[in-house]
């Protein structure tokens, strides 16, 4: 449990879930979601963790690849909708934080915003700008 909170945060529950999987030598399957409906379907299917994929958000929202075209605000808005649509006690969501959407201040803002939205975790890519879709090759860090 976190300091003074009667219920563990999504981040604390994610750490426990991953620790338990590691101890049991088990992989935790983590399907990708791109909106509230896909997250709800993942939850109903019984998964315990999902990943809000930046590629999936960009592809479904803009019909374009994950090439730095989705803004922090757009990504956060999708994440807020996802976390509001699910029971975060049943499904934990890790959000794609892209490159943090700028410098170190932006990275901090991204992490704090994602935590406030209800994400259990955030992934941050260490890439130079402009970023490239990790699937396309030629990524520079």
Could you please describe the fold and organization of this structure?
It contains 5 helices and 4 strands. The chain starts with 9 loop residues before the first helix and ends in an 18-residue tail after the last strand. It has a 4-stranded parallel β-sheet with strand order 1-2-3-4. Helix 2 runs parallel beside helix 4 and helix 4 runs parallel beside helix 5. Helix 5 links the parallel strand 3 and strand 4. It has a domain of 97 residues: Phosphoenolpyruvate-binding domains (TIM Barrel, Alpha-Beta Barrel), CATH 3.20.20.60. It is globular. Helix content is 43%, strand content 10%. The chain has 141 residues and is an alpha/beta fold. It comes from Emiliania huxleyi. GO terms for molecular function: catalytic activity. InterPro entries: ICL/PEPM, Pyrv/PenolPyrv_kinase-like_dom, Pyrv_kinase-like_dom_sf.
Keywords:
141 residues, alpha/beta, TIM Barrel, four-stranded parallel β-sheet, 5 helices, 43% helix
Helix content: 40-55%
Number of DSSP E strands: 4
Strand order of the largest sheet: 1-2-3-4
Report on the biggest sheet. Answer: 4 strands, parallel
Low-confidence stretches: none
- Secondary-structure element order, as H and E? HEHEHHEHE
Return the CATH class of the domain at 28-124: Alpha Beta
Q: End-to-end distance, in Å?
A: 35 Å
Rg from alpha-carbon coordinates = 15 Å
Which fold name is given in CATH as the topology of the domain at 28-124? TIM Barrel
Overall structural class, as computed from helix and strand content, comes to alpha/beta
CATH architectural category of the domain at 28-124: Alpha-Beta Barrel
Summed over residues and divided by their number, the pLDDT gives a mean of 90
Strand content: 5-15%
- Please work out how many helical segments DSSP would assign: 5
Globular, elongated, flat, extended or rod-shaped: what is the shape? globular
Please name the fourth-level CATH homologous superfamily of the domain at 28-124. Phosphoenolpyruvate-binding domains
Give me the oligomer status.
Answer: single chain
